Amino acid sequence: MTVKKIGLVGCGAIGTYLAIEIERHLKKTARLSGIHDRDPAAAQRLRRRLKKPVAILSLPKLVRASDLVVEAASPQAVRELLPWALRLRKEVMVLSTGGLLGCPGLLRSARRRRLPIHLPSGAVSGIDALKAHAVGKIQRVVLTTRKPLRALPPSAGTGPRARLLFQGSAQEAVARLPYNLNVAATLSLAGLGAARTRVRVIADPQARFNVHEVEVIGQAGRLVSRTENRPMKGNPKTSLLAAFSAVATLREILEPGRVGT
Known about the structure:
Layout: E1 4-9, H1 13-25, E2 30-36, H2 40-49, H3 59-65, E3 68-71, H4 75-88, E4 91-94, H5 98-101, H6 104-112, E5 117-118, H7 127-133, E6 138-147, E7 163-169, H8 170-176, H9 182-190, E8 198-203, E9 210-218, E10 221-229, E11 231-232, E12 235-239, H10 240-254
Parallel strand pairs: 1-2, 1-3, 3-4, 4-5, 6-8
Antiparallel strand pairs: 6-9, 7-8, 9-10, 11-12
């Protein structure tokens, strides 16, 4: 059985979860070829948590050493990674999908050169149905994100009542609120695009979890989904489902067969 060499960009909460999952449960089909983080201390912390030694590499060396590079860092990391992946023709998996909206030229180049880019559904449900709707005509895609105050930066302010923080296009949302809107970017890429996907962000002091509600209206009918996300332990800004989704996508890449659209 072929073992896929996986390079990991980002050693935070999701990156650490992925690295441990690869080492413990995917070792028959994958191994870490190296890790990379802009913060050397974060990379060192992750390396100490792993049972087997793993190299801490520069981004170019990581891409060269890998069959698949997984980004779990930031939109900026996506913009730094893609040129190297294109140059060296390496498969990538992107979690910070908001970064793709900021570099449409690189995304077009990847598609033109048939470079595989895998985008997990992340912290939202309904992506498979949205992709199916996109085969026909879609009139409307609306994302309403409701967040507890602990999942927002201090600049969002506080208050006893729920309040609308933002309303506009996904493109505007990713530019103005990059801390939490990979979901908006993923919906955009699966459906109507960033300019036509509508986004509402609500700060809710009564909310216990991050909640994403999606409405799609199109030729095939109407889709409504609601996802209530528990946060990762120690990181209230990251949904546990996003980490699970990344693992599920990785398993789909490594193992034959596929379920869903």
